[in-house]
Design a protein that fits this description.
alpha/beta, six-stranded parallel beta sheet, 5 helices, 12 strands
Length: about 240
């Protein structure tokens, strides 16, 4: 791990109340898909008891050679300052961290059950596996309220077109069936079984709000998944 000072290169809205940040990539910086970094604001205009540092997963894969993070915007001092940060501003950057990465045994399928901004490390994993042309059989059930709330949806659709081993299943919880032809409702065992033939075989990756992650873990175990094959990352700050 190392600490750097990096500049903000670009920022953009990628879904309702969700912004992506493109950062200067330090020379020689390397990371694995699924990892994250700590970003510390320098002399922010405001602060609160949560402090000036947050952890953000890298959205883009190492092979894409860009350092990108994304977050839901909420009414905290850190998020307000980050949202309004002018391009060219500097932050302290400590990375890489984390072991929430794709397993190496390509014969074992990967199933991702993801909510909202929890997609950030998963997009990185799937993009890297696609670039490296690994043979991982990957299925992603990606839950959002509406299509407008789903960050990186078009990226995931593109990856599904490029990678015959990747099955992308967008799931909407508050969209009318007349407006949406895909899966509707909350991810449950019945929905999972429609897209995963053998529940006991895959490694499972869960990311999103804590309550969703815990519900998915309970559902998987009851459905017959091996508890040792479940990897989880809870995203706070919704």
């Amino acid at each position: 791990m190392a600490t750097y000072t990096i500049k903000l290169l670009k920022k953009e809205m990628v879904a309702n109340d969700t912004m992506a940040f493109h950062w200067e990539k330090p020379d020689g910086f390397e990371f694995r898909a699924g990892q994250f970094g700590d970003f510390t604001l320098i002399d922010p205009s405001e602060t609160d008891e949560e402090g000036n540092t947050r952890a953000f997963s890298f959205v883009f894969a190492p092979s894409e050679d860009e350092l990108v993070t994304a977050t839901r915007l909420r009414d905290s001092a850190y998020k307000r300052v980050l949202k309004d940060l002018p391009v060219g501003s500097e932050v302290k950057f400590d990375a890489p961290h984390g072991n929430f990465t794709l397993h190496k045994t390509e014969s074992t399928p990967a199933v991702f059950l993801i909510g909202g901004i929890g997609i950030t490390p998963i997009r990185s994993m799937i993009a890297e596996a696609t670039f490296q042309k690994t043979s991982h059989d990957m299925t992603l059930l990606f839950s959002n309220k509406t299509p407008e709330d789903a960050p990186f949806q078009s990226d995931l659709e593109d990856l599904a077109e490029k990678n015959p081993n990747f099955n992308f299943v967008p799931v909407m919880t508050r969209t009318d069936s007349g407006e949406w032809s895909g899966e509707i409702g909350h991810i449950d065992a019945d929905m999972l079984k429609r897209h995963v033939s053998d529940i006991s075989k895959p490694n499972y990756y869960l990311a999103g709000p804590a309550d969703m992650v815990q519900a998915m873990q309970k559902m998987l175990i009851e459905a017959g998944a091996n508890e040792d094959n479940i990897r989880a990352e809870e995203f706070s700050g919704y």
